[in-house]
Amino acid sequence: MKRFFLLALAAIVVSGCSQEPRPESSVGKTTPFPQPITQVGEYTLSRLASLKLFEDSNICMLAMMYGDDMQEFAGTGNTHFVRDTHDCIHLDTVLMGQHVTTYVVRTADNTSTYGAETWYIAYPYITDMPDGPWCISQLPFDILEMKDIDGDGTTEIVSYADKYRQECSVYSFFKGVLTQVQ
User: Three-class SS string for 122-134?
Assistant: First the structure.
């Protein structure tokens, strides 16, 4: 009886793990990413690190490179890179936590009625090693501003609760950690 039970259990486990192969016609046909996606910018961050930006009509993606190797990758759909009046991608260079130079890449929501943006911060993971590795962090807010709130020479991140920009929270950013300071 014990042997029969073990054989039945093994048959259930094996049959539960088997999968039907997809028909050959559907393999490789569907993808969540439109093709092709174009590199629209590259910024040298240090001797070894660079940030590559990719965009199509509906997706923004950032690739952190360390030499020729992709170190990190991030992106958002339904967005476009924020550009200046000369159609250049807006890349902010700011001093954050302990006066560490970081870069902010802004993307705007294509269908927002209130100016929603997604911001990415490129920063050195180890501040004593400016050549790398570097990282990308996506901020979890959509109505943002950068200001030196306390006058110490470092930039804080201000997140507003609504499109009227009245109620806000203030954050510092250092080594990938977002800390509410006000």
Answer: EEECCCCCCCCCE
Which of 23 and 100 is assigned the larger pLDDT?
100
Q: Which long-range contacts (CB under 8 A, 24 or more apart) does 147-154 make?
A: 149/181, 149/182, 150/181, 153/95, 153/99, 154/95, 154/96, 154/97, 154/98, 154/99
User: What distances in angstroms separate CA 58 from CA 50, 55, 77, 141, one per listed residue?
Assistant: 23, 7, 6, 20
pLDDT at position 22 over 80: no
CA distance 179 to 177: 6
Nearest to 40 by CA among 85, 80, 93, 94: 80
Q: What is the DSSP letter of 143?
A: S
Distance in angstroms (rounded) separating the CA atoms of residues 103 and 5 = 62
Per-residue pLDDT band at 29 (split at 50, 70, 90):
low
Burial of residue 66 (CB within 10 Å: 0-12, 13-18, 19+) is middle
* CA 66 – CA 169 distance, rounded (Å): 34
> For residue range 66-100, what is the model confidence (pLDDT) as tens digits?
989 999 999 999 999 999 999 999 788 888 877 78
Side chain identity, residue 36? P
Burial class of residue 44, CB neighbours in 10 A (0-12, 13-18, 19+): exposed
